[in-house]
């Protein structure tokens, strides 16, 4: 790394020759007069000297402070205040003890704006440069830091010794001038250390030798001042340059971290994209700086045993945390809050962000990037905004579906099935938000899933009501939404099992509702065709073909409905046809006699076979329905009356939901005598009670047929008459 020579203004100890050249005649005359008349201001010399010293030191300090970087003012003030207190103590005690008899003389000039002094006599000889004829200020400017520190340390040690030996009893201002020079040059050296730290991560950087020199100076300072001395002399008090270096590192990290987004207005003005860009720039800068620390800065400091990596790491961690909390205070909306949470958890929290893979982190763990209460507040705010956003998204999905209804277009067919964008939109909405939340924390994932589940549970009934109230209800759309509900139920419940309790009920209810409306459309078409059954026109007409044609056309839509809902619907259609056929056959009407009854039995048997064959060809698995019409046909045409009992037994065992009224209506079709009817009724009653004891009062699930056939009251009157 190149080594720019930073000019450190004003902190230069001059050689005697330079000091003599810088003096004015007036100043020399004033010193001569002071030496000739030592007691001229004995009474109030201390007060006047202190004021003059205060003025001169104030002017020198102000000049230095205007040229030294702002971050060094703290140390400068501490050294200056310590110096001033020492002067005050010395000057206040001097006259009383007989140590100071002359008016203290302030430095006659300040070199480069801080400490050019015209030292005379023994004092000038003590401040001679010792490193190749260079002054301390030159050494600091050339960044020969260790040489400058060693020279200052020798001057400090000599000055302390001379003070202890009462060398300055006759000229106390000489001690003041030399002590101030030493102190200000220490401040200059500290300011140069800060400048080096500030430039280390800059574009030009700092040479590794300079960094090693800095580390050696800090170590040397700690060895020279291991603990405060007993006499409390300000010159020998430790300056804690290690803490000063660490503070400079922290300031440097804070300055670097605040560079991205320097023109940042506010979160509300910039939006989520602006915040994301700012954080991306911040991440690039921090990673690049830490990589430079690990590859270039740490090795340079390591030679002197300096833990630079850990100090820089903690400094950047603290700076990033402070910056993130500032951004969090202004963040608004779901997107901005998520950007912050995601960056903290996944970008900054990635294993290799703070250093190369395999790098050991500090023994003492870094504190959380965001305090627990701040993190909890961000998550809470995010979920609050998210709940409103999810509800709004479902509203948009409903509006999108309504626009499809208004266009009066049939749904698309994909892979042989009706498709509605509803299922894909809802699935993506839930899956993406839950996945995004899971990338931040398991707790946020669970909360997001609950929000999505609750919103979907409220949306499904709203959607169902809106669709069924629209003019878009048709077999294709109903089939598409049956598929959509099944897809949602399968995909979401399989991916998020914890949602079953909340989602199962509304999704199943919506599916059943769509199935019901799908069947009702077909039933309205088929219902009038059954009126001809068991009439004389029925004996001569091929009434079944148009009915079965409608069934076949309807099942064409069912082929584009996903299983098992298509099979369930087909079986319901099969059951409806058989049920309605029997309901019409058992209605009271003019009975068949003789040959008509035989023709009717044959016709009914042919119908039963045609219905069974048709539905079997369509794929219906409800084969248990095939015997119902056939048994009634056999009873109607049975010539051997004793076999009627056998047919009734088959009917009762095949359909446990058949009741006494149904048996009476069937017997009424056959026109048997009263005594035989009584005998058959008694026998069937025993069978009905026996079957009820075996299978219970209810028919097996899904096998309900006669229970839904209502025998008219007119038939009961006719049976009574018989």
Automatic annotation (TrEMBL):
One of its GO terms (biological process) is exocyst localization. This is Exocyst complex component 3-like protein 4. It comes from the Eukaryota. GO terms for cellular component: exocyst. The gene is EXOC3L4. Residues 34-46 have a biased composition (Basic and acidic residues). Residues 1-49 are annotated as: Disordered. It comes from Papio anubis (Olive baboon). Belongs to the SEC6 family.
